[in-house]
């Protein structure tokens, strides 16, 4: 029985011991809030004393709340007691300290940053401070001695101090450092990226948004100001957030502070204009006044910053913050009200983002300008990411809208192209039929002209010869034979191979050889191997045929020759044809007869050159045909 009662009591005792050990382990991390302070305030304003000594001070200590518009130095002695000297490293974590500082543990300097004597230099109050304390440096009664230099308007001071074992304090520091340092870096990079993308869209993309809006349709089609406002806002925000990561600014204080706060103001102003573009407020006349008011706020921001940071009147900046906050509360109220009146999804998403950012901005304004707490617990830099996400949504939706519009245009264009192709096919078929009919008509015209000029002319001459007694039977036979030869050659011309001069000459020899024998003329054939002349068409071959035929016919009718030479040779750039006879000849200086003039015209139409040399006992007709096509156009006369 005793054993049974003892076991539950034993378990209860063990549990209490474990709980006490657990609580004891947790209690080793301390938050030190009490310190002895010595404050030195620079006499830069009338109400500030030269020095002030305080026996006790409560942390966190916010310099700007206690001594607004002044600079100075402060020394804090923070005692702490350890029951047992630890055998493992301790750590000191200070969420915010500065603007420059030096930390001593039991009179030993453990860490320092910045110049404690020279003000308006580097600012080390932006990131948390972590100090490792070796066990050998700790005693039962210890003192943390902290010296700081404070600049006007830079949120100088000292937060409460976290002390405890290294392995327990470090996770707390690491969490805050990631939030404030890495988080700021991510936001700055993201804002810079979104800003550059938006500016690229503005510079390259047409204003499809305004052009297709029912109210603004018909306005001048140009670059979309929606992307411009968003791009400028994100770039300004990237500059503003970079202040959290810049301990050594490239501009002296207070101008660096003027730049940072002005960048924040420009971000808010451009974001307001971005919201106005989403809501299509550009169509209203009051939009111009709204733009001017925002411009006035930016100018007023610069003036208020100079008054607060350079001349020590922080209330001017506070008043400007109040006006700025009221402006945006009214704007967001109007914008959100419009979001519930049949607005687009983009309008509603932007309204939601704006409400969140205004709420966070008011909270940050309270922390920065009114709260006595001294922590870097501003969150507007993180809530601003909502605008970037909303802009991404708008870009995707507009890209989708443009893609659908482009797809509709492509479908319409494809349909019209198909229709035009069908019309072109029909037109081409009609033209082909018309060309074929025209070709047949031209061929018929050419044949009829050849028959009229050749056969008809010869038959007319033969008829006149029969009607008179001056001509003999042989003359009439020659004339009729010429008419018959001309008719045969006209028929042969319908199937002459293009460019084959040898075939033309062979056909003429075949047709005229019987007449030459009847006339007692000996033919000497001196035709070598001739190439095909590519540019000579069927029409050109027809002209060439009748040039040579004209020369042969003249020999048969007028030369009274006994021998005739037909020569064809190839030179460097041309084919040379010659018809040479030993007849009576004629005077070449006299006006050319109709037959010879026709030969000249045919040569010109073919692109060849024709020359005639004649004297008693020898007449030579020479035709030179270039191997390459020259700058000539075949005449349509034949």
TrEMBL record:
Matching CDD domains: HATPase_UhpB-NarQ-NarX-like
InterPro entries: HATPase_C_sf (IPR036890), Sensor_HK_TwoCompSys (IPR050482)
Keywords in alphabetical order: Kinase, Membrane, Transferase, Transmembrane, Transmembrane helix, Two-component regulatory system
Positions of transmembrane segments: 182-204, 257-281, 293-313, 319-340, 349-367, 379-399
GO molecular function list: kinase activity
Protein name: Signal transduction histidine kinase
Organism: Rhodoferax saidenbachensis
